[in-house]
Amino acid sequence: MPELPEVETVRLELLHHLQLPLKVKQITLNRANLRNEFNLQLFKSFEGQQLLDITRRSKYLLFGFKKGGLLSHLGMTGHWRIENSDFVQRKHDHVQIHFSTGLTLIYNDPRRFGFFDGYADSTKHPLLKDIGPEPFDESFTGEVLKKNLEGRKSPIKTILMNQAVVAGVGNIYASEVLFKARIRPSKPAYKLKLTECDRIVMEIKSVLMESIRLGGSSFDDFRHVSGEKGGFQNHFLVYNQEGKPCSKCGQKIRKKVFSGRSTYWCNACQK
Fold first, then answer.
1. How far apart are CA 153 and CA 142, in angstroms?
2. Residues 3, 8, 196, 203: which is the catalytic one?
3. Catalytic residue (one of 59, 180, 199, 223)
4. What is the rounded distance in angstroms from the CA atom of residue 257 to the CA atom of residue 134?
5. Is residue 133 annotated as part of the catalytic site, yes or no?
6. How far is CA 83 from the centre of its chain?
């Protein structure tokens, strides 16, 4: 499932190629539902309006109009692409946003785990209002993280994936961050010292930024707007590296399932 770097990569590409604002001429829905049933009235409300901006909150894309907005979650296999007016429709093209310029923004999703919803104020949307700080916000510091870990006895790896603690960090990046911060994934979150929280925050910012620079991770189905793959999967230090030598000490990378998710670490470097 796409994490923050993948969603941010899509957002930046859409902004680059669409050159907003653009007026929506028509929205075509080629099926009745994805993960949830489509709200036809919601989509129709955007016809005739200008798409003003595309922002991101955690792992959600937010398409902002003068009146309201459209929330998009990519699910497992969802992706957006941009076509000219003479495009050939592909299998699994479920949503088409036609602009007055002749461009069409298309959402394709083979497994149909993605979903859409509307909002008047994104900060009050049920899926967004309780999300924690964005990793790149200056206000997200080691002290803030340590406060958010108080009383939490679950492994730090599991807690970093909790969107109420920090936005957008999923399974892949939690493993990578903890390796670079030299912290064992199984350590109870409440036991972390401030210096350790400082290292985690620093590495969250560093790892996510590097992944965005490389176009995200295409470990599974993620594709750019252009259809190309991301490149960060070629730089994994521990994720999906079980049995391979650690890049720092040479010991074999280990794997264990925490809270139903595969976790990777170096037993020597992460004490």
1. 18
2. 3
3. 59
4. 26
5. no
6. 23
Q: How far apart are the first and last CA of the chain?
A: 29
For the question of whether the overall pTM of this predicted structure is more than 0.90, the answer is: yes
Q: Is-catalytic flag, 3? A: yes
Task: Give the Cα separation of 17 and 120 in Å (integer).
Answer: 26
Is 129 one of the annotated active-site residues of the chain? no
Distance, CA of 265 to CA of 267 (rounded, Å): 6
- What is the pLDDT, as a whole number, of residue 227? 67
Q: Contact at 8 Å (CB) between 153 and 189? A: yes
Q: Is 2 a catalytic residue?
A: yes
Question: CB of 247 within 8 A of CB of 162?
Answer: no
Q: How far apart are CA 21 and CA 151, in angstroms?
A: 46
Catalytic residue among 35, 152, 256, 261: 261
Q: How confident is the model at residue 25 (pLDDT cuts 50, 70, 90)?
A: very high
Catalytic residue among 2, 5, 133, 185: 2
